Amino acid sequence: MYLMADIVVNVLIAFLFGSILLGLHRKVMARIQLRPGPPIIQHFLHSLKFFFKETSFPKTAAMPFYVAIVVILCAIWVTAVIVGPVSQGSLLIIFGVYALYKIVEHNSGSSSGSPYGKMSCVRAVFSAAAELPLFAVIAIVYLKTGTMNIAEIIAYQSVHGALIFSVPLATIVFFVLILSKSPYSPFAITKGKDLVSGYETEHFGFLRGFLMLSESMSWYVILWVFLTIFLAPLSLVGYLVGMIVITAITAIINAVTPIFNPNHSIMTQISIAIVGIGGSLLLMLIA
Fold it and tell me: Which residues pair with 27 in a beta bridge?
């Protein structure tokens, strides 16, 4: 009973705080670009609004897969909240969620029948190569701490200090991953302006509401994982400040950086990963 209540509370926190952070991200971008921008709570309000708007279904949609894939997307981020903030379980499961997210992103685009969605799902497959650094970071963290359990990684850092100081290059690689998941990122090739809204283009009403709910939870989870893996143990205030700072930094970068084309996006991320992971291994051998 208590576990279920804990799960519900953490899912609500992930949605609410994730929505506010995404609203902050959009606000900071607007200010950098000399625009007033919407209120910080706008993303949250939009998420609620779509649940009450009329839902339409394209004639080209592959029903019922078109609906099911959106529910699955929401479910995997609820799972990530359970494995992460709730139970502090295996880091491998968290990154497995990100791998599954890439599959869902692909199928979400192809299920609508929209040419924009289809192009987005093709780019999702192409960009899967940029997800490989995830597992490389896991390997570095495992080699350094000897565990993939989040609770044990926190305990390790409480004794030996934050990993951001001992594996700084791996930290940078993970930050680039966060940057690639942020709105209007230079690496956001699946939602480039030439694709309208990418794989989300043909989703309306409560389906778009579920997508926005998933976006909020995913942003919260990836920030929580980063702060926990590289800066823990942190207090509630530490998490709050850390998430706000990272959100603001990514917003500033995105506001002044154009979106790369698919080839440049993937090669840039892979190049950063190779340098970061190779450098981390070298530093660990020297130490």
Answer: none
